[in-house]
Amino acid sequence: MDSSPPPENGDWPTPSRRTSRTLRKYTDYSIREISRRTGVPKSTVFEHIHAPSSRTEQKNKTGRKHKLNNNTIDKIIASLQGHYNERIKPWATLVKDWNLGVPPKTLMRELNTRGYYKCKACQKGLISPLNLQRRFQFAKDNWDQSIQYWKSVIFTDECHFSRNNKSVDYVIRQKGHRFCSDCIQVRRRQTKVEFSVWAAVGWNFKSPLIFYEKTGLKGGFTAEDYQRDILEGYIKPTFTKIHNRHYIIQEDNDGSHGTKTKNNPNARWKQQSTLQFLLWPPQSPDLSPIENVWRILKSRVRQRNATSKAELQQFILQEWENISQEEINSLILEMPDRLISCRYRNGFSTPY
Questions:
Q1: By CB neighbour count within 10 A (0-12 exposed, 13-18 middle, 19+ buried), where does 173 fall?
Q2: Which end of the chain is more exposed for a tag (fewer CB within 10 A), N or C?
Q3: Distance CA 207, CA 325 (A)
Q4: Quick one: what percent of the chain has pLDDT higher than 90?
Q5: How many structural domains comprise the chain?
Q6: Residue range(s) defining the domain that contains residue 242
């Protein structure tokens, strides 16, 4: 019987089913006769013959009804649009506010099926109109700089570390909506900073981490601190000794750097120095590769879950050493793309 031609759909899950269907299709045997010839019970032969003709065909199973109807889900999604405070609410709070009477995971699954997930809020603040113009002009003036130019730039910045990682909100949003205005965390919750560090990176260059103390009235980094610990303590002795390579020092627009006023002592220090500094547009961390390096470092330190301040400092130093020069160089090569993206977006935040 097995040598008979198969049916058109070629669906033969078991030999007994194949035999039953072959006998039924190519002979006039009844179910009783097929059962007698094959030794398969009549009820089984009946199931074989009347089973779905394709493996992918399934019986219609209704299952239990959804506890949340589509109308309720639509109203919840509508309440999220344009309201940051609604997006950051925990699932349990949304269930309570809407009096849904279901577990929080049920609401989470329903919104997940609509493409809404809990994601870390974007930390890029809203850019003022004046700074949008400055960012656009900077990108317009430098987008066509050669890659050799960016290889000569040393990107510098400060970073702060703490064991408390609850300063970042999580918002309910769809994929691709990271930079929507109601998904951006403009103001971060204040946390106690345990370590403040400064570093510089460039093409085939990575400085050691410099831990510094802030002596400002409100715990800020003063111009005197920056000149003593960074300009005089590291930049001047390091880059004046290198004569076979021309460096350009990049800084952000922090007030202690002396980039906002000419009367700042650091602004006068730079004028008297032989070093070249690159003027950076305000509110532009997305244009600087060192911000991506900080992101890598913070992510790796956070995964190690430091339990004490001394352990946190140890992890910071270890993970900084683990960041390879290849990772930094790949970020330097992205500089033309960053500026092209900024120019294309008319100065608005880029995805970098």
A1: buried
A2: N
A3: 11
A4: 39
A5: 3
A6: 129-344
